[in-house]
Design brief:
The chain is an alpha/beta fold and about 180 residues long. The chain has 6 helices and 7 strands. It has a single domain (about 5-180), classed as Alpha-Beta Complex (Maf protein), CATH 3.90.950. Strands 1, 2, 3, 4, 5, 6 and 7 form a 7-stranded mixed beta sheet that branches. The longest helix has 16 residues, at about 40-55. The protein binds inosinic acid. The site of inosinic acid has 15 residues, from strand 3 and helix 3.
Length: about 180
């Protein structure tokens, strides 16, 4: 089993979540960055991991995620970050104004790479786009996302409650399972 892996991210919360899940494997955080190609998030994460591995030459992970809205064929998907920066949650609610189908999901891809293997792990959480923003917790689309079988948005849940359900946790759990079998 690997003793240590590096998480290429600028987001300490993501790294902390990964550390909790992957314990006793040590998760080091590194913000060396990688080019984000415009493609499916599976390819964004894999390409990022390969790029970072060329420089770091140590086992590492890259995570990429997004919100996918069924009524808009998976938009904003790989553009989630840009769309959130530009039209924000208010813009998404405007797009959804006359939509009956509010189904959507978050997806997370964790790409792992070492000298022998490149592998991806997927996590998904399904839910609905709320009719209005609710809650102050979390980040991004959390205030407009209601996970299936719940009546609160991610934004109304504290970090622990959200992380129990999150797409990222599911992907990291699969990575954990695989790493501990090696
Ligand atoms: P990235 O994987 O950090 O690039 O995330 C892409 C974008 O998807 C973020 O900027 C958020 O807008 C959105 N996103 C990803 N995961 C979440 C989440 O757990 N909650 C809310 N928004 C998220």
């Amino acid at each position: 089993m690997k003793k240590q892996i590096t998480f290429i991210t600028g987001n300490e919360n993501k790294a902390r979540e990964a550390q909790e899940i992957l314990h006793p494997i040590k998760v080091k955080i590194s913000d060396i960055g990688y080019p984000e190609i415009q493609d499916k998030i599976e390819n964004v994460a894999t390409n990022g991991a390969e790029n970072a591995f060329k420089r770091l030459k140590k086992p590492l992970i890259v995570e990429d995620s997004g919100l996918f809205i069924d009524a808009y064929n998976g938009f904003p998907g790989p553009y989630s970050s840009y769309v959130h920066q530009t039209i924000k949650n208010k813009g998404i609610l405007e797009l959804m104004k006359n939509q009956k189908n509010r189904d959507c999901h978050f997806k997370s891809i964790v790409a792992y790479i070492d000298k022998d293997t490149t592998k991806i792990f997927k996590g998904k959480v399904v839910g609905k786009i709320a009719h209005q923003q609710k809650g102050k917790h979390g980040f991004g689309y959390d205030p407009i996302f209601i996970p299936k079988n719940k009546n609160k948005t991610f934004g109304q849940m504290d970090m622990e409650a959200k992380n129990q359900l999150s797409h990222r946790r599911k992907a990291l759990k699969k990575l954990d399972h695989w790493l501990k079998k090696q």
